[in-house]
Design goal:
about 140 residues, globular
């Protein structure tokens, strides 16, 4: 029951932030970033609720570990010189391992490299939003 309540709260907050992002969008490239992020938040929260809508399943270990990894990721981005691409790469690999029951290292590493570089390039080159470059010469 607690997992579903937490999922519903996350979904409600995501919808609220998405609506707020919609009202703040002014048509420039940078204004689409909050829409994209909050939109993905709503999709993930919805999928989470659908997955856990079956029989009562209380699995707190993985969500708590993911929360810890997310907090560590935010701290690394804010207070270190590691940079977005490297921090995001590590975050994706660790998150994939936490959510998977069977290791798929090649897939996880490939997706982490593609997503971290792809997101960085889209935001910095296409949308004009600066992300921390860090130690990589990108």
């Amino acid at each position: 029951m607690g997992v579903r309540i937490a999922g519903a709260v996350v979904l409600a907050v995501g919808i609220g932030l998405f609506v707020q992002a919609l009202t703040g969008a002014n048509g420039s490239g940078a204004s689409y970033a909050p829409l994209l992020i909050t939109g993905m938040w709503v999709v993930v929260a919805t999928l989470y609720l659908v997955k856990h809508s079956g029989p009562l399943q209380v699995r707190w270990r993985t969500p708590l570990l993911l929360l810890g990894v997310l907090v560590a990721y935010a701290v690394v981005l804010k207070y270190t010189v590691v940079g977005y691409v490297l921090a995001t790469f590590v975050f994706f690999v660790v998150a994939a391992r936490l959510m998977s029951t069977k290791p798929h290292w090649i897939r996880d590493l490939s997706v982490a490299i593609g997503l971290s570089l792809g997101i960085y390039l889209v935001f910095t080159k296409l949308l004009g939003i600066s992300l921390p470059a860090g130690v990589l010469p990108i």
